[in-house]
Amino acid sequence: MTALWTSDDAARATGGQVTAPWEATSVSIDTRSLEPGALFVALKDVRDGHDFVADALARGAAAALVSRVPEGVAPDAPLLVVEDVLTGLEALAAAARARTAAKVIGVTGSVGKTSTKEMLRAILGGQGKVHAAEKSYNNHWGVPLTLARMPSDAEYAVIEIGMNHPGEISPLARLADLDAAIVTIVAPAHLEAFESVEGIAREKATIMDGLRPGGVAVLNADIETAPILQAAAEARQARILRFGTSGTEAQLLDAFLKDGQTVARARLAGPDGVAHPLLFKIGSPGRHFAMNGLAALAVATALGADMALAAGDLGRWLPYEGRGVRETIALDIVQDALTFDMIDDSYNANPASVGAALDMLAASTPVDGVGRVSHGRRIAILGDMLELGPREAELHAALASHPAMESIDLVHCVGPRSRALWEALPRARRGRWTEDSTAMAGEVHHLIDAGDIVLVKGSLGIRLARVVDAIRKLGQALPDET
Q1: Which PANTHER family match (predicted)?
Q2: How far apart are CA 175 and CA 179, in angstroms?
Q3: Is 206 assigned to a binding site?
């Protein structure tokens, strides 16, 4: 396998000292997933990565990036010694970016960053060699790690950039040195650290700080804070492509659900500026997926991708587990009709993403006459939305009046913050409320019936994955066909 980093290249990039020559084929920060031949980066987080260097080398790491020779490691072990490990990783990232001719796309937004990143991976995979993180590596160490892992012959790279506090996005965007930037949406999230949605928009807009002059900015035109984003893009002399429902370069005309997929009809301006009709599919239900898919198609086309090929490849994309995956669960191995569908969207939540998930549930069709209940139901199991600041009770309660709620039969709530939502629901729609996910997981066996469609949605910290696991265990294992 071709070396990603040699000791000489890494030393030049970081200014560090090499204790013995080495060649690394990958970069890792976790000994549990480390592959032989990797450069292990001894970052300090909850634990000090230096404590794991000996284990990393024993597992086959080619070398370790350290700020000192760790205890139990020989001085002549293959090490790259730098003053600060995170700074050293950032230097590797900058060098990796400088040595490639790849078109680099940055993706940020309150909702849909990872989905859009993965859509772009699928779209651009048919156009050339694509590099993107396998997980949501979007913070102060995840972005440089993703860049440091980028092969020199990459033709496209997709970098997810997130934030929890002011001032996080700009340095990461500048490190990535972007050819294009996407802002999926700006919505109430992380309000513990920001005074308003406008403050969040100003932070998201700093992704333009890393945009090369004349680069492409793909912006959501349907949000109230769109002028903040557009002003930042104009300041960088960007080519601006707006996506939304009207009067935009990428216009979503219609989106409807069919056979568990989303079929979208749009108009998209090509490189010549002429709007072309576009029909595309998403392999998962949800209008929000169609909107993010349109943004991904817009930036890919602006960077020279073939529009028809890109649309076809987008149709093969599926969301990650916990991010809107829909699955059918069989309650009986003999009676094929005794099934229900679960939408697992348990990875994250804020008011905008919960609203989108409720829209998706409302547009889904349950099956009548197959269960104990006479009709199939749309059921939502909603957990707390975290980091919403002093307005958290108000924002939870407001979900009760979301338009999609009119089409939802029952809402079960999990967590202390979601109590405000539960109390705001009309009694006919109000299901169970539990303090935590363990209690709800213990109740799901009598909350769900054949024919139902069940949405599970909440912030990661409320641990609704326990509820998802409990729901899956209601299913019957199918017989082995071999």
Answers
A1: UDP-N-ACETYLMURAMOYL-TRIPEPTIDE--D-ALANYL-D-ALANINE LIGASE
A2: 12
A3: no
CB 315 within 8 A of CB 280: yes
Greatest mean pLDDT among 131-140, 177-186, 307-316 lies in 177-186
* Residue 115 in marked binding region: yes
Tens-place pLDDT, residues 82-101: 999 999 999 999 999 999 99
Reading the block at residue 260, the tokens are: 């568990």
pLDDT, residue 191, reads 64
The DSSP output letter for 385 is P
CA–CA distance, 454 with 357 (Å, rounded to integer)? 11
354 is in an annotated binding site: no
Q: Is 135 annotated as a binding residue?
A: no
Alpha helix positions (H), 100-225: 113-125, 142-148, 169-176, 197-205
Structural element, H or E, at residue 256: strand 250-258
Residue 263: domain span: 100-314
Which CATH number do you get for residue 57? 3.40.1390.10
For residue 456, the SS3 value is strand
Confidence bin at 193 (pLDDT 50/70/90): low
- pLDDT, one tens digit per residue, over 346-384 is 988 989 889 989 998 998 889 998 888 779 999 999 999
Any known ligand binding at 246? no
Domain contains 481:
no
Tokens standing for 453? 């469609």
Q: Both 66 and 115 in a single domain?
A: no
Task: Return the pLDDT at 209.
Answer: 97
Cβ density class 241-280: b for 16+ within 10 Å, e for less: bbbbeeebbbbbeebebeeebbbbebebbeeeeeeeebeb
Terminal C-alpha separation, the chain = 37
Annotated binding-site residue? 304:
no
Mean pLDDT (whole number) for 26-43: 96
Check whether residue 67 and residue 128 sit in a common domain.
no
Per-residue pLDDT of 376-435, as tens digits, reads 999 999 999 998 888 899 999 999 999 999 999 999 999 999 999 999 999 999 999 999
109 is in an annotated binding site: yes
CB 134 within 8 A of CB 102: no
What are the tokens at 307? 């529009």
Between CA 264 and CA 280 the distance in angstroms is: 5
The pTM of this model reads 0.84
Q: Which tokens hold the place of 136? A: 């949501």
| Beta carbons within 10 angstroms of residue 2's beta carbon | 8
| Residue whose entry in the numeric block shows the structure tokens 């998930």 | 357
